[in-house]
Amino acid sequence: VQLQASGGGLVQAGASLRLSCAASGRTFSSYGMGWFRQAPGKERELVAGISGEDRTYYVGSVKGRFTISRDNAKNTVYLQMNTLKPEDTAVYYCATSRYSGIYSLESFWDSWGQGTQVTVSS
Known about the structure:
The protein is mostly beta strands.
């Protein structure tokens, strides 16, 4: 499976960005997809996930601001990020799950994109 993430950038607080992750090499619709992020000096965390049944998960700090969605016809998952805050600054990674669900443990995610930098200035 190949994942290609894009859409990061440098923005001011309060702005919006949309990340995209194009996948190839697998029947995309059957698997969970997720966005993780890693800030400097911190562990990588699951930010948002969408299951094969289109159930969604968000970490508390982004609820109400971020929206994950998927377009199975395009094999693409998106992360719409609104009202960005400086604490959202991180490298964002997309990943596919080994199964149809969403999992906090990285061992359940078997393919990763290359990461895209999101920097939010105050």
